[in-house]
Design a protein that fits this description.
This protein has 572 residues and is mainly α. It has helices at residues 4-10, 21-44, 53-67, 81-91, 96-107, 110-121, 124-134, 138-144, 150-169, 174-187, 196-206, 214-243, 253-259, 279-294, 300-317, 319-333, 345-348, 353-357, 362-373, 381-398, 404-407, 411-431, 433-451, 461-473, 479-492, 497-509, 513-526, 532-543, 547-561.
Length: 572
């Protein structure tokens, strides 16, 4: 006769009983989704090999680093970790194809890290659900496929919080040195994390003051500080040696701060009033303006301080406008609307069907996370670390402007707090009618705030069509297709003067001088200071025997050229 213990041993184990099977399946599915996206992006999207703005800046920096043996001769304008990683891939022989692929492969670990963090905070069942939920958030995959820093920051910050919770639960101060190293790496990728550092210091000093001796708490903070400073000060030392300038990490901060805090700021557009809108023009002029106003040559750190001071003066002298601006930024931060300054996400993803089939939107889960944040007093010490990170990091975003890629590092922790809300409140919601009604009321308000389009936000499809037209415009056999996108651009926005100009170039290539003239005139009428169409008009007038008009056009052009240089636009 078989004993009960023998029966138990002979029964097949459930797949959930294996501690590694679910994580393995999670990783496989996550990787599969990203490889499908990569295949679609590479084969179907015209954007795959086309770089602009920040992507182009990162790629060119990586190219330069690989060529120079990874030695940079100037003070860092931006935090250097991500370009150095791209530079390493470039040095190994990888280009855009390899860079995108490597990032997506590394990004496939994001759901796994979310799962591990969830297991630290609640049970395996809830952690598994949150991790599976993260598979359906399309912007993790999208951002990991771009030559942008979002995916790297998500991984670093998840590892940082996972190790912080582990160190919090283990009386081993040396673990906090590892936390400090991760914080330092995150800081030299994007310095926002340094705002979390003092909040973490205060929390660690006071949270167990009755149980942990003062000497032990000081040791913890010393280890944390040492680990962070080891990484950050290596960048500071580089800046000092190459520029004789004390710049902690990079000097971009002042310019970015003023972009988000000026009389024309809308909280979501990176621009400085009066400066050129293209990237290189903004960089060059923000230095020239600072030096002109102060009357002498400036070090990079002094340029940054100038723009910080200018932004602070605006906020201090205009408190009512500042209040409205930050209210707008807050509503943008918690709104489901995804805003990108590099690509119009809703437009780009139409070429990759996978992302359009991933249904998870911030508007579906953020309200639950916000309600859980409001239950701070009922959270465990470990969960409070997550909440403190979300709140402190959010402040750094509000100080500048709101983009999808800037708030992306918050999303894993928002998902975690959503899971925590259901884990800790489900039973009371089921059995306590008063609690249920109270929560439903609060959630209804939060869902309204998160999902309502307060500012009539919508993707800039005119600019998106124009940008796509530029890709085809550079290919002589695709000019006709480019013209279709430029026409769509002006149909959506009659003020898109650059699209009119390029339509004129295409018409002129086809010897349709009448149409070309009309397009150039429309461009000039919208923006008289935009000079390329004036030059083309002069040429058309000469070809068609209108010498007087040609003379007037060229004289006007010469007078304008004596002032500020025109925007950079392809003239072919």
């Amino acid at each position: 006769m078989m004993t009960s213990s023998a029966k138990k041993q002979s029964e097949p184990r459930k797949w959930t009983a294996s501690p590694w099977l679910f994580p393995a399946l999670l990783l496989i599915v996550s990787l599969a989704l990203r490889l499908i996206y990569f295949w679609q992006y590479y084969n179907l999207s015209p954007y795959f090999n086309e770089l602009a703005l920040d992507e182009l800046y990162h790629y060119q920096w990586a190219e330069r680093l690989a060529a120079k043996g990874f030695y940079e001769t100037e003070v860092f304008f931006r935090a250097p970790l991500y370009p150095y990683l791209l530079g390493f891939i470039y040095w190994l022989g990888g280009r855009i194809f390899t860079m995108r692929l490597v990032q997506l492969i590394l990004g496939s670990f994001t759901p796994l890290l979310i799962y591990l963090l969830g297991k630290q905070l609640f049970n395996n069942k809830t952690a598994s659900r949150v991790a599976v939920l993260s598979l359906f958030y399309p912007y993790f995959i999208f951002m990991e496929g771009e030559l942008l820093i979002g995916g790297l920051l998500v991984a670093l910050d998840l590892l940082l919080i996972i190790l912080s919770i582990h160190a919090l639960r283990n009386d081993r101060p040396y673990l906090w040195a590892g936390v400090g190293v991760l914080m330092g790496l995150s800081a030299i990728a994007r310095p926002n994390i340094l705002f979390f550092a003092p909040a973490l210091f205060v929390y660690l000093f006071f949270h167990q003051r009755k149980k942990v001796p003062l000497r032990q708490r000081i040791k913890v903070l010393a280890n944390l500080t040492a680990g962070c400073c080891l990484i950050v000060f290596s960048v500071t030392l580089h800046n000092y040696l190459v520029g004789n300038d004390f710049t902690l990490i990079a000097f971009q901060g002042g310019m970015s701060f003023y972009m988000g805090n000026n009389p024309l700021s809308d909280g979501q557009t990176a621009m400085i009033p009066g400066l050129k809108t293209e990237w290189q023009g903004t960089f060059d002029e923000h230095i020239k303006v600072a030096e002109r106003e102060l009357g002498h040559k400036l070090k990079p750190s002094e340029v940054s301080r100038f723009w910080y001071a200018k932004g602070r003066r605006y906020l201090w002298n205009n408190p009512a406008q500042a209040f409205k601006l930050y209210l707008r930024k807050f509503l943008l931060l918690i709104n489901r609307y995804e805003n990108s300054n590099n690509k119009t996400l809703a437009f780009v993803t139409r070429f990759t069907s996978l992302l359009n089939r991933l249904p998870l939107s911030l508007g579906l889960f953020l309200p639950f996370a916000l309600l859980r944040i409001g239950q701070f007093g009922r959270q465990s010490p470990a969960e409070r670390l997550v909440t403190i990170f979300v709140l402190s990091y959010s402040v750094t975003i509000l100080l500048f402007f709101i983009y999808t890629r800037l708030r992306l590092p918050l999303i894993p922790f928002v998902l975690i707090l959503t899971g925590s809300y259901f884990h800790h409140n489900w039973q009371s919601l089921k059995h306590n009618k008063q609690t249920r009604y109270r929560h439903l009321t609060i959630l209804a308000i939060l869902f309204f705030l998160v999902n309502y389009n307060f500012f009539n936000l919508s993707p800039n499809y005119s600019q998106a069509n124009y940008n796509l037209g530029l890709i085809y415009f550079d290919k002589p056999d695709q000019r006709e297709l480019a013209g279709r996108y430029f026409q769509k651009a002006v149909n959506l926005d009659e003020q898109n003067f650059k699209a009119y100009f390029l339509l004129g170039l295409i018409a002129e290539d086809q010897d349709d001088l009448k149409s070309a003239e009309n397009y150039y005139l429309k461009s000039v009428k919208i923006t008289p200071n935009f000079l390329p169409p004036l030059a083309r008009l002069g040429g058309i007038y000469q070809k068609t025997g209108r010498a007087e008009k040609a003379r007037i056009a060229y004289r006007y052009l010469a007078e304008k050229q004596a002032g500020e240089s025109p925007p950079d636009i392809p003239v072919k």
